[in-house]
């Protein structure tokens, strides 16, 4: 075998192994990208909006102790670092596809995320590992609120309840 052929074969081998290794890394990078652009951090990462998104990934998705108060009660963005840790990748896909949650969680858009993109988000968040504590439990309408919260009802529309389909339950 001449030297040139050996180099070509070696090069081919290296690029094949580089390809094999880059596949999961690509999914993880895509997972990070999807989480970043779909706005999960806006609610599920404390201080994200206040700091203009300048929060290290290590602190992402640890849930939020500040609730959203509306006609549905007070809802708290869940700690996804702990939630996803408790599920397998298949369970996460299934969970997301069937998710219905209180406002302002955009569960309806979450149901539209493709399986492969959901798997990518799972792989990214799994790699970050568990962090933080559970978010406070949901407070039903009229219940005692022990945390800070964002009032999600425009004051000029106090008597408007566009969420009657949820609060009627
Ligand atoms: C506007 C704020 C907001 C955004 C944006 C948001 N969430 Fe949520 N999310 C919430 C709140 C609040 C809850 C709790 C809802 C409840 O009490 O039913 C929640 C609940 C969830 C749950 C349900 C957890 C459970 O145990 O039932 C999942 C999963 C979730 N969010 C994932 C995501 C992902 C992934 C994204 C980005 C694609 C995202 N959320 C974007 C506010 C938000």
Compute the CA-based radius of gyration.
21 Å
Q: Helical proportion?
A: 40-55%
User: Strands across the major sheet, in which order?
Assistant: 2-1-3
User: What is the number of E strands?
Assistant: 3
Structure, explained:
The chain has 169 residues and is mainly alpha-helical. It has one domain (22-167). The chain is 46% helix and 6% strand. It is built from seven helices and three strands; from the N terminus they run ααββααααβα. The protein has helices at 3-38, 40-44, 80-85, 89-97, 107-110, 115-128, 164-167; strands at residues 67-70, 73-75, 149-151. The protein has a three-stranded mixed beta sheet with strand order 2-1-3, with no helix packed on it. Helix 1 (3-38) crosses helix 6 and helix 4 (89-97) crosses helix 6. The radius of gyration is 21 Å and the shape is globular. It starts with a helix and ends with a helix. 22% of the residues are buried. Bound molecules: heme C (HEC).
Key structural traits:
globular, 169 residues, three-stranded mixed sheet, 7 helices, 3 strands
What is this entry, summarized?
46% of the residues lie in helices and 6% in strands.
């Amino acid at each position: 075998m001449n030297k040139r052929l050996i180099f070509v074969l070696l090069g081919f081998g290296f690029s094949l192994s580089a390809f094999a290794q880059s596949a999961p890394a690509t999914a993880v990078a895509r997972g990070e990208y999807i989480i970043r652009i779909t706005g999960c951090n806006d609610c599920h990462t404390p201080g994200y909006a206040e700091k203009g998104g300048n929060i290290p990934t290590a602190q992402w998705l640890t849930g939020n102790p500040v609730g959203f108060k509306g006609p549905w009660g007070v809802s708290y963005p869940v700690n996804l670092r702990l939630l996803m840790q408790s599920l397998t990748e298949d369970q996460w896909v299934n969970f997301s596809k069937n998710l219905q949650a209180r406002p302002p969680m955009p569960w309806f858009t979450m149901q539209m995320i493709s399986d492969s993109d959901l798997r990518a988000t799972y792989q990214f968040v799994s790699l970050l590992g568990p962090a933080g504590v559970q978010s406070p439990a949901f407070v039903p309408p009229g219940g005692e609120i022990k945390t800070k919260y964002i009032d999600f009802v425009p004051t000029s529309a106090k008597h408007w309840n566009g969420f009657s389909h949820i609060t009627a339950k």
